[in-house]
Design brief:
Blueprint lengths: L1 H22 L1 H22 L37 H7 L2 H11 L5 H25 L9 H25 L2 H9 L1
Helix pairs in contact: 1-2, 2-4, 3-6, 4-5, 4-6, 5-6
Length: 179
């Protein structure tokens, strides 16, 4: 899990360096960071923390997702303390914020951000579906996780709007036309 995070971070850093000259620093870092944050979410949610449990019999596999909204959740995560719901929310905040920073460079940001938010929600749903189908990774499909993930992405979009007002990535668009 940590190796996947480190390797994807290195690749994202190289991508940011490659994009910087053409698109400006803010977009390059935001876009590469967005891709990295999505990769980290995949690593954290789909790679077993303590190794795969091995073979899971058909009778030991959950038949479907839990629809118990806000139901029982572990009180912590293997690497961080705190509530599982808070962590499910927090892990999507960077993606939402970086989405806005990357999109703010373009005139179509008002369209790109809602589409990107829908894609982040679809990614969360895909993760939950994968956790259901691959019982071997010892993760559980839960609608509460989806709700928390989307909430984190929405909070991240709000944070991203504030950051965009501070960093003003649209300036890079104007500078690239001049240069």
């Amino acid at each position: 899990m940590l190796l996947g995070t480190a390797v994807s971070g290195l690749l994202a850093g190289l991508l940011a360096l490659a994009l910087r000259r053409r698109f400006g620093l803010v977009f390059a870092v935001a876009f590469a960071g967005l891709l990295w944050s999505v990769a980290v979410i995949g690593c954290v949610t789909l790679i077993p923390a303590n190794g795969a449990p091995g073979i899971v019999s058909a009778t030991g596999r959950l038949p479907g997702c839990s629809w118990d909204i806000g139901g029982p959740a572990p009180t912590g995560f293997w690497i961080f303390s705190g509530g599982q719901r808070l962590l499910n929310t927090a892990v999507f905040v960077p993606s939402g914020a970086l989405l806005v920073l990357a999109a703010a460079r373009w005139r179509s940001a008002w369209t790109l951000v809602p589409i990107g938010l829908l894609l982040l929600a679809a990614y969360s749903a895909g993760i939950e579906k994968t956790q259901l189908e691959l019982a071997r990774i010892d993760r559980a499909c839960d609608v509460t996780d989806f709700i928390d993930n989307v909430t984190g992405a929405v909070l991240g979009v709000g944070l991203g709007i504030v950051l965009a007002l501070v960093f003003r990535p649209w300036r890079d668009r104007a500078a690239s036309r001049l240069g």
